[in-house]
Each structure stands twice: as C-alpha cells, then as structure tokens.
From TrEMBL:
<dbReference type="InterPro" id="IPR036108">
    <property type="entry name" value="4pyrrol_syn_uPrphyn_synt_sf"/>
</dbReference>
<dbReference type="GO" id="GO:0004852">
    <property type="term" value="F:uroporphyrinogen-III synthase activity"/>
</dbReference>
<feature type="domain" description="Tetrapyrrole methylase">
    <location>
        <begin position="5"/>
        <end position="217"/>
    </location>
</feature>
<dbReference type="InterPro" id="IPR014776">
    <property type="entry name" value="4pyrrole_Mease_sub2"/>
</dbReference>
<dbReference type="InterPro" id="IPR050161">
    <property type="entry name" value="Siro_Cobalamin_biosynth"/>
</dbReference>
<feature type="domain" description="Tetrapyrrole biosynthesis uroporphyrinogen III synthase">
    <location>
        <begin position="267"/>
        <end position="495"/>
    </location>
</feature>
<keyword id="KW-0456">Lyase</keyword>
<protein>
    <recommendedName>
        <fullName>Uroporphyrinogen-III C-methyltransferase</fullName>
        <ecNumber>2.1.1.107</ecNumber>
    </recommendedName>
</protein>
<dbReference type="InterPro" id="IPR014777">
    <property type="entry name" value="4pyrrole_Mease_sub1"/>
</dbReference>
<dbReference type="Pfam" id="PF02602">
    <property type="entry name" value="HEM4"/>
</dbReference>
<comment type="similarity">
    <text>Belongs to the precorrin methyltransferase family.</text>
</comment>
<dbReference type="InterPro" id="IPR000878">
    <property type="entry name" value="4pyrrol_Mease"/>
</dbReference>
<dbReference type="GO" id="GO:0019354">
    <property type="term" value="P:siroheme biosynthetic process"/>
</dbReference>
<keyword id="KW-0627">Porphyrin biosynthesis</keyword>
<keyword id="KW-0808">Transferase</keyword>
<dbReference type="GO" id="GO:0004851">
    <property type="term" value="F:uroporphyrin-III C-methyltransferase activity"/>
</dbReference>
<dbReference type="InterPro" id="IPR003754">
    <property type="entry name" value="4pyrrol_synth_uPrphyn_synth"/>
</dbReference>
Amino acid sequence: MGKGKVYLVGAGPGDPKLITVRGLETIKRADCIVYDRLASPRLLSHAKPDVELIYCGKLPDRHTLTQEEINQVLVEKALEGKVVTRLKGGDPSIFGRVGEEAEELVKHGIPFEIVPGITSGIAAPAYAGIPVTHRDFNSSLAIVTGHERPEKTESSINWPHLATGVETIIFYMGVGNLPFICQQLIRYGRSPQTPVALIRWGTTIEQQTVVGTLENIVQKREEAGLSNPAIIIVGEVVKLREKLQWFEQKPLFGKRVLVTRARSQASELSEQIAELGGEPIEFPLIKMVPPKRQEELDQALRNLSQFDWVMFTSTNGVAFFFKRLRELKLDIRQLRAKIAAVGPKTAAALEEKGLVVEVLPGQFRAEGLLDSLRDQLHAGEKVLLPRADIARETLPRELTRLGLEVTEVDTYDTEIDAENAEETLELLRQGAIQIITFTSSSTVKNFVQALGEQNLELLKGVKIACIGPITAETANALGLTVDAVAKDYTIQGLIDIL
C-alpha cells in the first residue's frame, strides 16, 4: 500500500462560510479528518459519507490529545494510504503548531500541503466592527500569543518594545492572562486609557464583545463573565466599533434555528437564515422516495393527452413527475391540458420545464387554488392531480363535488428521516436552539415522533414558526405552542415572520 497525503488546513475563525475554496476541497476529498473544537462542526457535513472522523479535543477516556499524539495519528493514517485532512481553527500557521506537524510528516516521507485559513485575530475584530488597520489610527500591527508555554519561568515577549513600538496589538488566547498583559503594557509606557476589545467566539452567533481600556478591561471582563476562546485587541482602532459594528445588528444574530425540511429542500431556508445572522441547524424529517403505487402514476403519464387539467401542489410533485416521464421516455408534447399551480415556487418549477401556468392562486394552499379555478372549471372535465402520498384530500374532494372526473396519483412517497434525532435532542437539552421552523404538517408529525412526546418539555422557551395555518393547526393538535404563522405561505413568508 502506498503512502497517503496530509492536508494541514485552516478552517477559518468559526463561521463555516469563511473557509477557503481549497480548504473545502480537502474536506470533500478526505478519507480521514482530524479536527479540533475551533473548527465549525458544520464543515464536516461536506465530507464523504464513509469518512473517518477523529476529534482532537476531550475524549471519554482521556483529556485532550497531546501534540505528539496528534502527530502520530497523522502519520499512522497517511501510512495506511489515506488522504488525511487536519482541520484547525483559524490559520494553521498562526499559533496552530503546523510547523511541528509538518516536520513530523517530513521525517516519515509523507507528502503534505499547508492550506492557509482566515485567522481569528483579523476576522473576529472585523465581525465586531473593528478593522485591525486604519490610516487614521495605525500603520503597524503585531500578533502575539497571550498563552505562552506553561513551563516557561519568564515571558519571552519583549514587553518594553511591544508596549510602545506597535500601534495595534492582537493577543490570541490571552484572556486568562489579561491582568498580566494590561499590567505589562502600562508598565512599559502604554497609556492606561488605550482602548481594548475582547471578542469571544468571533464570527459565530455566540460572538460576545466587551470594550474598555487597559485600566478597566479586567473589571469589565469579570462583570461580563467572558472567557476563552477570545481575541484581545489593543489600540485606537477599537474606537471604530461604535460606528462600524454590523454583525451583531443582523436581525437573527444570536439565534440558532432548527430547519426541519427535507434534506433536498433545506438549503434555501438555511441560506436565508444565515444571511440574516442566525445559525441554521438542519434536522431533515422527511425524505422523498419513488411511490409504492408506481403503476397508477405510469398509467396516468401514458394517458396524459386525455386530461383537461393538470394541477400541481408542490415543487416535489413537479420534480418527480418529470423524472418519471424521462424514465418512461414519454414526450411532454402529448400534454394538451391547462396547468394550475398552488404557489409561485411550484409555478416557477413548471415554467423551467417550458410549461405555461394558467392559474396561480392568491392563497398558496388547496383552498386558494379552488377559489381561483372555480370560474374556469366545467363538469365532466378530467383532472390529473400528481401529488404526495400524504397530500390533503380537500382539493380532490371539492373538485369531485363540482362534477369533475379526478385522477389522483402519487408521484412520490414521504418517509420519516430522523437520522439526527439524538444530536437535536442534545442541543435542546443544552438550550442551544431558540427557534424551530415547520414547513408542512408532515414535518410536525415526524418531529414529535422522532423526539418522542416525553421530550416535548424541552421545547419550553423555544419559539415555533409555521409556514401556514394548516401546519400550525397540526402543531397545536400535537401539543406544540405556535408563536408565529407566515402571512404568505412560502419560504419567504416564513423568513419575513422570523
């Protein structure tokens, strides 16, 4: 077996979107990922399904892995012929001990690459509204460790030169030594009134910023209860925060939002939550699979020319409808029916396929579609409803009552997907989720089933938002308290109500 390769990768400061393109490539390529607590867990979702994950933090049977143990793991996995990605918070070259790991790989003849990352000392201040350089305040910048080797008997930092020789100073992991740092800077000539900012968990929804001066920042830190991991920035640029802070002003900052849509649909909602400053946690509760009653769908597709109307009630229905058409090698041009869609997303999916939607309701549910259609329907017309196996019966029942001949076919079946139930329960126990979103009645039912009714008490204090009244009714019936219902029954409507 040949040797593998090791990528020594900077994962960025915490926000998973701040990883580099190259860094993300190495995650997707890895057979084994060795990661620490400062690397966002959400980055691991990009890895291959069969990837081996090794956490360098605390383990049940021992404390944190030593650097020597980490070096050994990298060597062993590479010698097994694996592609190994060593994922470190921030940039691996800035107090990330990448040099020691690279030296060990060289010793064993293992090929490696160093992939730089965005360092927290620059990113955290930027997210706190503090650019580390500004022409009106400074022309020099120093990056200093605030946590030197514990075995040192005295500091190796040149405090007399550092205190007055550099305008902006950034200390990494120095909150525990904050009194000593402030004392040394003042002792060697820095004004006690020099502005200081402490930024904990920068670029994440837990970001916490405390501002003061060298004279009072220790007291302010104690009052705020701020601890590591945090960046200390000393210098006049800290004054810019009053004017430039932006991240904490986002409407969903500090909120972790559970997204319960199917995995294939979650991205749109998740992206908008992240754009508004929240952290989306995807807990897909539904997966779509081909229908068990495939013959009924196939028969309807082969007889498309016989229908006067085809009414679509979801984008999933559209996707599976056309997927099966392709599999059967049937030509959509046999369709002579008028097309109706329950909402704008469904209409857009149809228009992408080259079909003109003639009816689009004002209210995006079955009742709204019926109201919009009523004047155009005639008794005896044939209607095809390609839908999910769990679709509501309102539409076919009312169409039949109006004298139309309705053919219902399942274009897909829905199944519960509760793969992440234990992780979600743990987050709820920790009080780490502030909002839960539901986009259909089936997601509500599957949520209660996946968590278990005995765990619903964990939802106390958690806000629940639903995409529409039908979903909200289901939630209420199952014992959940709904705090908000979208006015427009769309993802954008749900975002607006959040």
